[in-house]
Amino acid sequence: MFDVFQYTTRPNEDLFFQKDDADDLRLGELISNNDYEQAEIIILGCPQDEGVQRNHGRPGAALAPEAIRRQFYKLTNFGINAAVYDLGDTIIQPTLEETHDIHTHIVEQILLASKKLVILGGGNDISYPDGAAMAKVFGRENWSALNIDAHFDMRTDFPRNSGTPYRQLLDENFLSPKNFYEIAYQRQAVSPVHYDYLKKSGVNLTSLEEFQTSENKFDELLAGNLSIFWGFDVDAVRAADAPGVSASSPIGLTAEQFCSLAKIAGYSPNTKIIEFTEVNPHFDIDNRTAKLAAIAMHRFICAAK
Q1: What are phi and psi of 37, to 5 degrees?
Q2: Which CATH architecture has domain 8-303?
């Protein structure tokens, strides 16, 4: 049996905010002493941005799991009924490939224990090991992936980086194209070559403009029986609401839309993983982006079934 505790480090104690007011309890006071075995939802960080740097992006996402936790544990428990446990962070290895291998094994074991995961990147390359774990546990044809992102992450680069995870999942036969959804991509930020590849492969494509003007976006997907992975790249959010990301844009999802999507993910009993990536504290303003990710986590956990 793979020991998830052997390959993770516990969260820093000072992240668990203490208000010391019995009438106004905060999550830091409630989650810090929770039990892994009894937990329904596991928080797991992967504090690295090697993939971002390989993709010539702005380093800093390695600091995101701690920054998001610091904001999350200040929130109240209003509406939260699920038992949550913070496992800490995947121990970062000498290479990105080795980190991905260890992370995949950790995620597999947690999924096999019938627990849901909130995963905090780090770079968006973490979607590859998270998706590989989904395929290994549930089977290639039995899970769907939603990439909520301004970018496709369909590069064919070698070595792997933050722009390659979904191309890896497709090419390595971990993910069926018909079960893959690219949501809120921005036309000026994606390659037409990658678009044509996705279109021909049968991937479901919804641009930012289409997403913001359509209704009933996920009814059919959520009504099905497939296990679901939600990849939330915070680059998808407009810079006014999320300035601290690896690649910012003046246009994008609003903070409210982003949190609503996290809530929808929670409502689905088939959701197994929700992942937040590309928060970059180096470029954040008043912790605005870390707070957004923390609130989206809160919305997901409140709605989780």
Answers
A1: -60, -35
A2: 3-Layer(aba) Sandwich (3.40)
